[in-house]
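Weekly structure sync - notes
Attendees: PM, LS, DV (DV joined late)
Agenda: review two folding runs queued last week.

Item 1: First target. Sequence and structure tokens pasted below for the record.
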Amino acid sequence: MTDIASVSIARPLSEVAEELRSSFAEYGFAVIRDHGISADLIARAEKMSKVFFALPEDVKRAYILKDGGGARGYTPFGTEKAKDAKVHDLKEFWHVGRDLPEGHELSEFMAPNIWPSEVDGFRETFETLYAAFEEAGGRVLRAVALGLGLEEGFFDATVKDGNSVMRLLRYPPLEGAEAEGAIRAAAHGDINTITLLLGAEEAGLELLKADGEWLAIDPPEGALVVNIGDMLDRLTNGRLVSTTHRVVNPKGDAAYRARYSMPFFLHFRPDYVIETLPSCADDDSPEPISSHDFLLQRLREINLA
């Protein structure tokens, strides 16, 4: 993992912007340290995630929102699949999104959250974590803006009240000899602007390099793994790349344990038009499209809309 940037965003952003830009341009990934999300909050959230997933199946399934596209509440095993994949991924997850005040201009795009009554403190913990993820993501985007030669605050308005989603994710333990090296999440790219991932210390996350080789990502404990999503790739006309990645089962004892992680999918506002930045434009620039229309197009491709 020597070539992927590992930077502290507690440093002045002007000092890390080029290192991040270069890593995002070549790999689509970087490791972010000193991100400001407290270790105590992370530990509390991880514990509550495990408590929720340990609930009986019928209790969890009561939180499936019919026709909700998986945007809020519980999504059981065998629902989501990677684009063009023949089989569904082996995972279950819970989504927390943005709660907007009644009458907000974007409320038609974002359903209210639902919360499991069986886990004490669940709502308070994950509302706090959502806000912390958003703050860390905003700081990463300010560094990205500087790396692209934009004003530092360029992305602030584009993501304000964006349709960002936090996912609590559980991959079950596998059994038998086939467990070692099995694919838990098939190769895919992320739809959104950037993804911030907690829980990648457990071996298994790999990205596909330009030369066709898979590269394992092994961040230090508590660090965030951040990757470029399709929306930012489109905005920059591929200058920053949304890289194909996957989750494979590790070797040895870890292959037979459940895996937990918490990605935060940071999105543009639904009404933001993704139009190639002038500095990145050429004859092959994609057509402008609203963030919301792009999201719906991609959700249909992965069986969530």
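Item 2: Second target, run right after the first with the same settings.
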Amino acid sequence: MTRPGRPDPRAQAQQAQMAAAMAGAVDLAAVKARNEAAARAQSAPPPSAAAPAGAAGSAVVDVTEATFQAEVLDRSFQVPVVLDLWAEWCGPCKQLSPVLERLAEEGGGSWVLAKVDVDTNPTLAQGLRVQGIPAVKAVWQGQLVAEFNGAIPEEQARQFVTELVNATTGGAVPGAAPEDADVAEDPRLDAAEAALERGDLAAAEAAYRAILDAEPDHPEAGLALRQVQLFRRAEESGPDALALADAAPDDVPAQTRAADFLLGTGNVEAAFDRLLDVVRRSAGEDRDLARRHLVELFAVVGDDDPRVGTARRQLTAALF
């Protein structure tokens, strides 16, 4: 189970687009979705390389936004799924894709290659934060666990998928941060995780606060608490927050509530843009309130997310 505050909690956000996951906060709806996907996967037959190309169970499948849930997320609870993000105009893609397809067929069903045309599936490409192609991302049990960009030699591609398959039966995941394997399990997080899984945000917040009261520098609880607090604010604001904010553009608290709702539902850039707009057109206390709230959202998403870096630069330009 992935915990809030792990080095890569974004992998859980917005499971339908994998954005979320990756939005810097744990999407509580995605926790339920992964559990449901796991249940479906238990009753599904394992993939077989002998199946016709593109058919259910094939070692190589073409994936669209409509089939992503079944072909990638659900299937990843049986075997690892490697995403090949490509486009017809991409020369390096035409070098790498045949290599991956051949390796998938050789794998005999031990892993699945899911091909995604980024031009015809822009929402998936955006959700997966594709910044250049070819891009290869590995999914295991509903989460992104490893990736690389660019056309690499066949030997390196073979090593990547071999390590990935080996990791599903124990060992380190290729491309994962080394510290992931060294982080000791903390039983105090179990109560918070259980609360998250049943959707009890108040209990989860209380559990993380108790950990921080005893250990202020806890490596996971601090970020997890900020994430849960965000979701509580987003839940309290509700979907009406956007309409209320649009109707009162000069109401800064309304804009912060709308930004919370946007970030809580995985719309990271929209949340940042809304508060940046307030900073640009306001002054005094209103401007400072918007700035401070935006910085808080940066902390929730995490400085390693490129969207935070972009927004920080925009904030600096707006202020100075």
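Discussion on item 2: Residues 1-35, 46-56, 171-184 have pLDDT under 50 and may be disordered.
Action: LS to circulate a short write-up before next sync.
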